[in-house]
Amino acid sequence: MSEQHLYNEEAKKKLRDLAEGIDIAMMETNLGAMPSHYFPMSTKDVDKDGYIWFLSNKNSEHNIHLNLDKNIQLVYAKPSDMQFMTVYGKATITTERTILAHYYEKTDDTWFNGIDDPNLSAIKVIPEDVHYWDTKNGKFVSLIKMGIGAMTGKTQDVGKKGDLNLEQNDYPINH
User: Are strands 159-165 and 83-94 parallel, antiparallel or unpaired?
Assistant: First the structure.
């Protein structure tokens, strides 16, 4: 696997492609305690600034944890396509009506009583450290290349891995 670090707009595009393509992230909160708290969350959007958005119940355990500690870890995994990404950052919770209306969809009625549900909130994740693994050709071709590498002893390029360095107004990312 070759290493490719991406920066600024290219990094934001890769973040968006992986987060929206994989969709479900395991959101980890309560990072300073053991055990931490994991919960599957559907990604609503990665906006133009590289912020990741989710809808959530304001009384949920993860919201309670985020009100005490803004540190958050997201783990995205799509083994069928050999795509993976980890995101560490800070989270903020909002109940701002325009934001909720922007991200709310009919399918969210499964968890909420419509856009006017008093428990509806949005979580914005501001990435600080992002690492990805992504194959170029999917799982099948990658497995074949790994087999060829094992038989020939020659390294095969099965994909890319690296850091995504997003330049953001409030949180410059440095590695």
Answer: unpaired
pTM over 0.85: no
Among 14, 42, 13, 45, CA closest to 26: 42
Q: What is the pLDDT along the chain (175 residues), one digit of tens a residue?
A: 577 787 899 999 999 999 999 999 999 999 998 899 999 999 999 999 999 999 999 999 999 999 999 999 999 999 888 899 999 999 999 999 999 999 999 999 999 999 999 999 999 999 999 999 988 655 444 444 344 434 545 554 456 778 888 875 444 443 3
Cα–Cα distance measured from residue 92 to residue 122, given in angstroms and rounded to the nearest whole number: 8
- Per the DSSP assignment, residues forming a β-bridge with 6 are 164
Count other Cβ atoms within 10 Å, centred on residue 111: 14
What is the rounded CA–CA span in Å between residue 160 and residue 5?
A: 9
